[in-house]
Amino acid sequence: MGKKDNKYSNAATSLSEGGIFGLGRPIDFTDGITRIALICTILTSVAATFWKTMGGADTETAMYFGLNTAAAFFFSWLIAQELDPDRKLGGIIGGGLSIVAALTLGEGNVLVLLWLLFILRMLNRTSGSRHKIGDNVFLIFIAYWLGKDGYWLYPVLTGTAYIIESQIRGGYYRSLYLGGLAFAVTAMADTSMKAHSLSMIYVYLMALCFILFLPEIRMAAVTEAKGDIDGKRISPQRLQVAQGAFLMIGFSVPWVHGDAQAAALTPAWMAGIGVGVFLLVDAIQKAMFEKNKQ
């Protein structure tokens, strides 16, 4: 196979690029939706803290709850940008739903949400760059940490994501080795935990997320989103792979690890529901507009 035909050749040339992180994305303060999301995050923190205080909680507990609820909103919004980078308002809907979920079901796990966010960015490359050494250390360390706590599926899924990334067109050939390293981390995970139960409320939320989010995979084929760094249109194939990985992770982790990890991933499900609802509403509005034109 000649160099010009090698699907890894473009990725190999990027090794000379500077920096140790490639998956970070800048926050555009000039964007109106971004400003709304940041304001809502701050207001959520204050309101949730006040609500908990009014319920009789001490100051420390109330502040912890407020920060976690705000983090649920913020990460739900961030994850929504990776699931549907063309329709940012869906993230606001998802963030609002995550607040309701935090008040009724409990807060999510920031570490899990951060891990998922970077997995999605590695696969869809919305940052406009491949994953670099800093991102890899970060991802594998989180996988190790979660595995050490008994959630062994995280290093397995991390390894799987690396291997999938290596096989997509333009994939980074060293992702294969990183996948092997992530799988090796599984050997250090605590697998002694007993089987966990999964409450039906989470099953219903998973089903709702699946139904509403599924059309997003088809719409990804016509994405116009561009990478932050290179300014090029992101690969529809990569976006669809990231969306598929989201569904795989969002369903497999709760089934294996039960309610604790279902609660951790609830803000991510809310992100999926949010972008799905916005896509549905947008489609209905366009259909009504076309009907009125006739």
| Global outline | globular
For the largest beta-sheet, the strand count, sense and barrel status come to:
none
Average pLDDT, rounded to a whole number, is 89
- Low-confidence blocks of residues: 1-16
What series of H and E elements makes up the topology? HHHHHHHHHHH
Task: Please state the CA-atom Rg, rounded to the nearest Å.
Answer: 20 Å
What proportion of the residues form beta strands (DSSP E)? under 5%
- Tell me roughly what share of residues is in helical segments: 55-70%
Helical stretch count?
A: 11
By secondary-structure content and strand pairing, the structural class works out as: mainly alpha
Q: Count of DSSP E strands?
A: 0
The count of domains is 1
**What gap, in angstroms, lies between the N and C termini?**
55 Å
Keywords: Membrane, Transmembrane, Transmembrane helix
Transmembrane segments: 32-51, 63-80, 92-120, 171-189, 201-218, 262-284
Description:
- There is one protein chain.
- The chain is built from 11 helices and no strands.
- By secondary structure, the protein is mostly helical.
- It has one domain.
- It has helices at residues 9-13, 32-54, 59-83, 89-105, 110-124, 133-148, 153-167, 175-186, 200-219, 236-257, 259-293.
- The N and C termini lie far apart (55 Å).
- Helix 2 (32-54) runs antiparallel to helix 3 (59-83).
Can you summarize this structure?
Helix content is 70%, strand content 0%.
Features:
294 residues, mainly alpha, disordered N terminus
Topology readout:
Blueprint: H1 9-13, H2 32-54, H3 59-83, H4 89-105, H5 110-124, H6 133-148, H7 153-167, H8 175-186, H9 200-219, H10 236-257, H11 259-293
